[in-house]
Design brief:
By secondary structure, the protein is mostly helical. Among the domains are: 130 residues, Peroxidase, domain 1, CATH 1.10.520.10; 105 residues, Orthogonal Bundle (Peroxidase, domain 2). It is 45% helix and 1% strand. It contains 17 helices and two strands. The protein has a two-stranded antiparallel ribbon with strand order 1-2. Helix 11 packs across helix 13 and helix 12 packs across helix 13. The radius of gyration is 26 Å and the shape is globular. One of its GO terms (biological process) is cellular response to oxidative stress. InterPro entries: Ccp1-like (IPR044831), Haem_peroxidase (IPR002016), Haem_peroxidase_sf (IPR010255), Peroxidase_I (IPR002207), Peroxidases_heam-ligand_BS (IPR019793). This is L-ascorbate peroxidase. It catalyses: L-ascorbate + H2O2 = L-dehydroascorbate + 2 H2O.
Length: 421
């Protein structure tokens, strides 16, 4: 019995209802499985409340690990994640969610789940309360409705799916991800605090050797908040107006766009509004790192290639897969090529079946606070107003003192409106 308990390492039901095959196996072996979907915080509270809860008789139950995720539900969940990204601009925190769930892996421990890694443990309060995970409750609140909608997927897969989708939707490379990760089922299985990398260790370069230079490039997305990590400014000119929740200090000016600007900005260090952590500076201070950092600053394609491989490797750390080899959501290469082409070559926005010009949709990869040229629609509007007052591109307006005053007033009002927007 002790051996069976050790192998299952679980005292609580999994977050999704067991499959029919799992139920049949449980009945045959004399185990009782009770489907009990739970939110990330509710599970922890049940464990702490256990024997002391009124009317509850504590009993030992053996529950098997959650079965593999269903590919069809993962694909649907990916589309829902894309919609969330369009409205909340939460790309950075979803990347962080996937990283922090897998980043607890300890290569010196062979047993699962003691070794940590991508196992969905971040949904439980003991790990969520780790200092390095401050603020990730917001990511779980975004993800939980998707988990409720698709019970046939594991938290471990969902966290990594959200992270990869955020990178791709922000303009990053297509990641060679695989799925089928198994969830842990109890807070007691969470890894101890202190396994995640530190931003300001005593020897930044030595500490950073535990990571990969390419992965540091993901800091091109997001902001650091002093109330969560202890690093960064409360706000800068790039973050004071959002989008999303305003504030924090970003590593790059376009902090919702995934590119190689992180390496360029760290190398130049010209903008005091941008964040440079000790581990960031080490990329160009340490000779062994500098070779790669210089390469990525000059060659974005090389950075994308290495980052895609590094991210996929990180997402697999410590994970237990079912089936053991995992599975891909993009096994059909033709479908992948079609999807990539749709992103690379969007349909012309000018063809609107006679409905007139349409507003340009927000695309995170194109997001920027830098000054931009007026859109064609705005130019047409200004020209129409100018011609309505008697002017034209080839003929200046007739001089009229009163009219000139009105034009000046209208111009000031227009500029004020632009500034407000």
């Amino acid at each position: 019995m002790a051996e069976r308990l050790a192998s299952s390492a679980s005292l609580l039901p999994s977050a999704a209802s067991p499959s029919s095959s799992t139920r049949r196996a449980a009945v045959a072996s004399g185990l009782r499985l009770r489907p009990s979907p739970s939110r990330f915080s509710q599970a922890a509270r049940r464990v702490r409340g256990g024997a002391g809860a009124a009317g509850v008789v504590p009993r030992l139950r053996v529950v098997r690990c959650m079965a593999a995720s269903e590919a069809a539900q993962l694909k649907s969940a990916r589309e829902d994640i894309k919609e969330i990204l369009k409205t909340t601009y939460c790309h950075p925190i979803l990347v962080r969610l996937g990283w922090h769930d897998s980043g607890t892996y300890d290569k010196n421990i062979e047993e699962w789940p003691q070794r940590g890694g991508a196992d969905g443990s971040l949904r439980f309060d003991p790990e969520l309360s780790h200092g390095a995970n401050a603020g990730l409750t917001n990511a779980l609140k975004l993800i939980q409705p998707i988990k409720d909608k698709y019970p046939g997927i594991t938290y471990a897969d969902l966290f990594q799916l959200a992270s990869a989708t955020a990178i791709e939707e922000a303009g990053g490379p297509k990641l060679p991800m695989k799925y089928g990760r198994v969830d842990i089922t109890a807070p007691e299985q969470c890894p101890p605090e202190g396994r995640l990398p530190d931003a300001g260790p005593r020897l930044p370069a030595e500490h950073l050797r535990e990571e990969i230079v390419a992965l540091s490039g993901a800091h091109t997305l997001g902001r650091s908040r002093p109330d969560r990590s202890g690093w960064g400014k409360p706000e800068t000119k790039y973050t004071k107006d959002g989008p999303g929740e305003p504030g924090g200090q970003s590593w790059t000016a376009e902090w919702l766009k995934f590119d190689n600007s992180y390496f360029k900005d760290i190398k130049e260090q010209r903008d005091q509004e941008l964040l440079v952590l000790p581990t960031d500076a080490a990329l160009f201070d340490d000779p062994s790192f500098k070779v790669y950092a210089e390469k990525y600053a000059e060659d974005q394609e090389a950075f994308f290639k290495d980052y895609a491989e590094a991210h996929a490797k990180l997402s697999n750390l410590g994970a237990k897969f079912d089936p053991p080899e995992g599975f891909s959501l993009d096994a059909d290469k033709g479908a992948v090529a079609t999807e990539e082409k749709a992103v690379a070559d969007p349909a012309p926005t000018s063809d609107t079946n006679g409905a007139g010009p349409q507003p340009e949709p927000f695309v995170a990869a194109k997001y920027s606070y830098k000054k931009r040229e007026l859109s064609d629609t705005m130019k047409q509007k200004i020209r129409a107003e100018y011609e309505g007052l008697g002017g034209s591109p080839n003929k200046p307006m007739k001089s009229n003192y009163f009219l000139n005053i009105m034009i000046v007033i209208a111009g000031l009002a227009f500029l004020t409106s632009l500034a407000g927007n």
